[in-house]
Design brief:
73% helix, 0% strand, 157 residues, single chain
């Protein structure tokens, strides 16, 4: 019990419920439309509105950007509704400096492009459809996260 409180000081139930909602959402998206709900493709398809480079103007981005924007808006709306209905009314924050958030965002974006997808595409959709490349990608994500977390924790201590 002490380990659970240490790892999840705010409880674990909301993580489980959130995972069930996310899994159900991407499963329903795939079953009813055949579409994969990965967020890195949402990012790329959104850039196709602004950047005229050939990469962003591929049909896989330009033909799907409307539903992807609706999908992303639904994720933001869902998080807002969760906070409004089930949250404690306080606003969350972080002590992480803005430059580290920006640098981390660029590194994650680069990694998602390099890995041909992100954690939601590979971890939720790819693993759910038993794709071998997605398993390798998720194992790489997790190993990198474990190593980075340990290095940063030791570096900051």
């Amino acid at each position: 019990m002490a380990t659970t409180l240490t790892l999840f000081p705010l409880g674990w139930q909301h993580y489980l419920l959130g995972g069930v909602f996310i899994g159900t959402g991407v499963a329903l998206l795939f079953v009813f439309t055949g579409l994969v709900g990965g967020m890195s493709s949402v990012f790329s398809s959104t850039w196709s509105y602004l950047v005229q480079r050939p990469y962003f103007q591929q049909a896989r981005y330009t033909d799907t950007r409307l539903w992807r924007l609706v999908y992303a808006a639904g994720l933001v709306l869902g998080a807002w509704l969760w906070w409004l209905l089930l949250g404690d009314g306080t606003r969350g924050g972080t002590a992480v400096p803005v430059w580290q958030l920006v640098a981390g965002g660029f590194l994650v974006g680069y990694g998602a492009r390099l890995g041909n997808g992100c954690t939601s595409g590979h971890g939720i959709c790819g693993l759910g459809s038993l794709q071998w490349p997605s398993l390798l990608a998720v194992l790489t994500f997790m190993a990198t996260a474990f190593i980075t977390a340990n290095l940063v924790t030791r570096w900051l201590a």
